[in-house]
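Supplementary Methods. Inverse-folding protocol.

Structures were first reduced to a discrete structure-token string of length 701. This string, shown here, constituted the complete conditioning input.
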């Protein structure tokens, strides 16, 4: 049953999170919603009656990883300029949250006539103060996951992570203080108030010292390890041991984990490999943690808590926003911190629930815990659903979301045609291309859309110059009513080619079958290459059908261009996985290099297990291959081991203007079974992409 539960939690969490992404919601919201569907609120597939405590150890692992990840963001060097802000914001955020929640709860009790049998007025004051102290806590887990998902960086992000750590420490201190005051008010305290407060302080100091010791041990271990797999194993073992020791000593694993991460990132060595290693281990644990948390959110708690639960949630949020704003104003913090930090602190879960458990274990305060539990769970229920969305809103509006995340294509099926309206062609700035007086053939191109006509004309003219040919534009023969516009049919192509210093040949293909017309044009002329462009708009499937038909019947290379952004060719990336691909792509590479100063980077992707000697040997092999070519462009060669070819290409393309790839014509069934690296790159790459299908050469074999 446990294995089945894990499978259901993982699959459901992932599926619902992908649906949430469609609506621009954080993935953590999807995990929680999936848990609610699986739990008693939904289909009741996962419940405590069925699985008991068999999955609680995943929660402990996740909490330690979350706490450790927060510690990474508390780097003193970066936070030094925000020290004043942290003091003021931390104090006023905690003070305002406590004051607003306590006042709002007590006022609601007074106005609504809420009554518990046998309670005196002081009991309602104690209840309000206990809820106020719990309302200070913030859930770091959801906040951290949203930050990682958005790759957010900036003053707001740095301040947020530090404040979350400070906030939970203050929540524990103030909660301990209020519990001591409650004991004094109720007349059951056996210890003086100062001793009770001292006990809370000892818990916090002990947790921090344990975390610092753990961080120091990790530094020593990391100094002796090199392999990421060993670093991940050692790091995880050390952190889990730290968490268990904290529980045994009645300390806070959350604070201990934060302190361990803080220690590691602030050491002079600043060895953060363990953070990167654990990142690869975290995703399934996080999915389990948040989806499992969702199963515990029971909508019944909303009914039990009534208006007090809603007021608790609203007053918690408003108190935090108000306190953050006051503290940020006094500290003269950046505008984005003042405006948005409060919205990023809405999530509330782990620490708040932990404080409820502490109340439940206190015999004196147990009657209050019975009333407080549904109220706080209502706040947790609402904050865990709304909080991640609020945090995403804050980070996005503050302008701290990584650009590549803001522009990220839909991973579930972005198509080439989705990159519309973004193509611009800048005027030709290189020298004029003086074509040969005796051309040896043609480079034929056809523009599916007028928008791409100039870009195709430029690409074809560069190829024609290199091959001592002339560019030829082929258009479908217009209908009778369009004959009057025949003079303007090739206007854009003519303008671009003449601006480059060449002459354009034009031809009308007989209609209505465009594929047959292009094949006829290629076969009737001495064609060195055919150049096509993916449509920026329109039916991509229709273009794919056109391309497949033409590529099967022509005996020359077919080059397909996917235009995006401004058409630059100065920095060219050429990724490949086999040296034979160079033979397919070399002509376009040499042609581009022949018209001006270009920087060509050849990226040879090898297996991640490749040895250094294999890498050196492959780079030499490529150098030897290039040295045998008649035209030898200046190329920077880099062979790299990689686990993901797609990620390596997308990352390397950040520094390029243009990407050139080669591809072999394959059947639809082969593409379905084995996929296509070119198609995957085209779906994600936000740069102009040129793909060379050397159909002619391979069809003759």
């Amino acid at each position: 049953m446990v294995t089945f539960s894990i499978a259901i939690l993982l699959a459901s969490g992932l599926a619902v999170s992908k649906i949430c992404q469609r609506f621009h919601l954080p993935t953590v919201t999807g995990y929680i919603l999936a848990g609610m569907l699986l739990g008693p609120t939904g289909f009741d597939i996962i419940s405590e009656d069925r699985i008991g405590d068999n999955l609680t150890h995943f929660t402990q692992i996740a909490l330690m990883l979350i706490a450790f990840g927060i510690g990474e963001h508390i780097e003193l060097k970066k936070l030094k300029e925000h020290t004043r802000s942290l003091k003021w914001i931390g104090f006023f955020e905690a003070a305002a949250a406590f004051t607003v929640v306590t006042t709002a709860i007590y006022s609601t009790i007074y106005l609504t006539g809420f009554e518990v049998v046998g309670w005196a007025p002081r009991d309602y004051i104690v209840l309000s103060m206990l809820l106020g102290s719990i309302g200070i806590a913030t859930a770091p887990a959801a906040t951290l996951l949203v930050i990682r998902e958005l790759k957010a960086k900036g003053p707001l992000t740095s301040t947020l992570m530090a404040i979350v750590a400070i906030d939970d420490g203050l929540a524990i201190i103030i909660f301990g203080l209020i519990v001591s005051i409650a004991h004094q008010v109720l007349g059951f305290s056996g210890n003086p108030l100062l001793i009770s407060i001292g006990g809370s302080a000892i818990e916090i100091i002990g947790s921090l010292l344990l975390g610092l010791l753990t961080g120091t041990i990790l530094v020593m271990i990391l100094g002796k390890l090199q392999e990421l797999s060993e670093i991940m194993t050692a790091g995880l073992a050390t952190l889990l041991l730290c968490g268990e020791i904290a529980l045994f000593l009645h300390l806070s694993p959350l604070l201990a984990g934060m302190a361990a991460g803080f220690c590691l990132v602030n050491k002079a060595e600043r060895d953060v490999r363990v953070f990167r290693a654990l990142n690869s281990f975290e995703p399934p644990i996080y999915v389990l943690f948040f989806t499992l948390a969702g199963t515990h959110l029971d909508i019944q708690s909303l009914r039990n808590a009534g208006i007090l639960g809603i007021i608790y949630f609203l007053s918690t949020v408003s108190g935090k926003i108000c306190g953050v704003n006051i503290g940020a104003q006094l500290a003269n913090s950046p505008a984005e911190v003042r405006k948005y930090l409060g919205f990023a602190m809405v999530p509330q879960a782990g620490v708040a629930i932990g404080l409820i458990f502490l109340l439940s274990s206190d015999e004196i305060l147990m009657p209050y815990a019975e009333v407080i539990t549904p109220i706080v769970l209502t706040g947790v229920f609402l904050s865990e659903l709304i909080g991640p969305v609020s945090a995403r809103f804050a980070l996005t509006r503050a302008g701290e979301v990584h650009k590549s995340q803001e522009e990220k294509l839909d991973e579930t099926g972005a198509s080439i045609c989705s990159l519309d309206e973004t193509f611009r062609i800048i005027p030709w700035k290189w020298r004029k291309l003086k074509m040969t007086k005796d051309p040896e053939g043609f480079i034929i191109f056809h523009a599916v859309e007028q928008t791409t006509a100039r870009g195709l004309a430029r690409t074809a003219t560069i190829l024609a110059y290199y091959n001592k040919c002339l560019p030829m534009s082929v258009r479908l023969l217009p209908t009778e009513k369009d004959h009057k516009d025949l003079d303007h049919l090739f206007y854009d192509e003519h303008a671009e080619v003449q601006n480059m210093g060449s002459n354009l040949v034009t031809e009308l293909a007989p209609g209505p079958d465009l594929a047959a017309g292009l094949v006829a044009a290629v076969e009737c002329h001495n064609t060195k290459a055919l150049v096509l462009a993916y449509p920026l708009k329109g039916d991509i499937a229709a273009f794919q059908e056109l391309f497949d038909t033409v590529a099967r019947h022509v005996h020359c290379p077919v080059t397909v261009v996917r235009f995006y952004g401004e058409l630059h060719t100065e920095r060219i990336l050429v990724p490949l996985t086999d040296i034979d691909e160079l033979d397919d792509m070399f002509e376009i590479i040499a042609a581009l290099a022949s018209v001006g100063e270009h920087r060509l980077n050849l990226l040879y992707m090898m297996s991640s297990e490749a040895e250094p000697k294999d890498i050196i040997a492959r780079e030499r092999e490529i150098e030897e291959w290039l040295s045998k070519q008649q035209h030898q462009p200046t190329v920077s060669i880099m062979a790299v081991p990689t686990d993901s070819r797609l990620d390596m290409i997308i990352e390397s393309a950040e520094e390029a203007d243009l990407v050139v790839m080669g591809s072999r014509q394959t059947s639809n069934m082969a593409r379905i079974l084995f996929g296509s690296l070119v198609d995957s790159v085209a779906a994600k790459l936000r740069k102009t992409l040129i793909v060379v299908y050397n159909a002619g050469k391979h069809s003759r074999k």
